[in-house]
Amino acid sequence: MRRLLLALPFALLPLAVAHAADEHDHEHGSLGAHEHGVGRLNAALDGQTLELELESPAMNLVGFEHAATTDADKAKVAAVRAQLEKPLILFNLPPAAGCVIAKQELESPLFGDKPDADDDHDHDAKEDHRDHSDIHAHYQFSCSSPGALKTLDLANMFNTFPATRKIQVQLIGPSGQQGIEVTAKTAALKF
Hints:
Radius of gyration: 17 Å
Strand order of the largest sheet: 3-4-2-1-6-7
Number of domains: 1
Helix content: 25-40%
Largest sheet: 6 strands, mixed
Number of strands: 8
Mean pLDDT: 81
Strand content: 25-35%
């Protein structure tokens, strides 16, 4: 399953390249650019296993990207982490699907995770990393009735994190693969 999720970006690369060509405001047309208000979600349903991988600028979720030094900032980071630790609610998975969390990982410099080792060799990269913190969440669910997963409803993501304006989703499910951009008004997509 992990290979399937890792292969997802490559399977949808032509779509991403076409989308990047349409986006003139991305720096140098790069894919995966850090853009406030925009999150990315990879979703794969394979048999009874559902994997979701969310990547978002911390600004979308926490409201800032600097290290939390004040009590208020620390409380906000802790509250966001607690919300991310409840993916069944956050992703509004239907109870009829019988999904339970099999594995969950949250990473961000705001959570005390260290920056990538590559950043240690380049001062400019360290500065950029500090100014542009991301939050990465990976969830693996085991679903006893995966047929009940007809849609993935991201409305709770938009309600919980209103600074997120859109989420770019790459989805592999029983009906094939698709790349779609969802907003609060169009927050549900079909598997």
